[in-house]
Amino acid sequence: MPELSTALRVPAAQYLRMSTDHQRYSLDNQRAAISEYAEMRGFAVVRTYADAGKSGLSLKGRDGLQQLLADVVTGQGGFSVILVLDVSRWGRFQDTDQAAHYEFICRDAGINVHYCGEPFDNDGSMVASIVKNLKRVMAAEYSRELSAKIYRAQIQQACLGFKQGGPVPYGIRRFLVSHDGTPRLFLGPGDRKGLKSDRVVFMPGPDEELKIVRRIFRMFLAQKQSIANIAKTLNDEKTPSTDGDLWR
Hints:
CATH class of the largest domain: Alpha Beta
Shape: elongated
Low-confidence stretches: none
Helix content: 40-55%
Number of helices: 7
CATH topology of the largest domain: Rossmann fold
Order of helices and strands: EHEHEHHEHEEEHH
CATH architecture of the largest domain: 3-Layer(aba) Sandwich
Strand content: 15-25%
Largest sheet: 4 strands, parallel
Mean pLDDT: 88
CATH superfamily of the largest domain: Resolvase, N-terminal catalytic domain
Distance between the termini: 71 Å
Number of domains: 3
Strand order of the largest sheet: 2-1-3-4
């Protein structure tokens, strides 16, 4: 079967999104699947919009999708269709109407969205509409279930004494242990654990920092000094903070 020249193909934009939870949804894998779909359907990808490492729960922070929608509304994109791997790459919006709204913006501008890896053609038929909305619900529910599982796991790990993220308090140091609690080593600023199974716990820091912590408590509890006054005193004395910044 003779191939269509690029000039005869319908210009298309591809939208790629990868969060951090699925390597099989890597941008390269999405690009390859979309390219195969475009070749079979007579499309030529002329624009690429991508959101790497971005959650599908919200439009916030997804510069790629925001720019795509802006180009659709202004008509400056230079494409006639949008190719996306599947419904979940478009988004895992908790309100499925939000996903439908963004797709409607495109359709209202005369630009249809094609879900290249889905078992249905997004042609507006009753069957396609039912399956698509079911897929949206499944995508949203997946995120809700994943969030609940992660939260439960974090609570469990915190109860075992393992650090769950966030800044390290003054007078504290991070210490690396194995999954069974075997001590490994102290972690310096910016250091990360090498093995996924390892855990991080808090340990008391240097004696000079612990003395300052005790002094801060005395100033606040016994001397009734305000936090602002304590910070000013430490800054006047040029007492170094954890990150080298001023005390606040």
